[in-house]
Amino acid sequence: MKKTTGIAIALMTLFAHLAPAHADEMNIKVAAWDAQKSTLTTAAGTIIMIDQSKVTIPDTLSVGDEVLIDFNSSEDGFTGITAFTVTKDN
Fold it and tell me: Under 8 Å CB-to-CB from 60, ≥6 apart: which residues?
């Protein structure tokens, strides 16, 4: 429970600066991907939970890949990832 709460707080902090009802994107470099837990760790150390029922993560995703993540947010923070695209394979 602590870990899930920590992830939620990290995501809320990460997206808190965004405008209400806003679609945005971020480029990240993959440091780790755990398909069973649906968690992606960025090179900066941020852990992102990904709902694999809403976006497809390539089986070939690996450490060092660069990805573009499209997401929605509101005044309450992060509301969900809408697209996941590998922009540079490692």
Answer: 86, 89
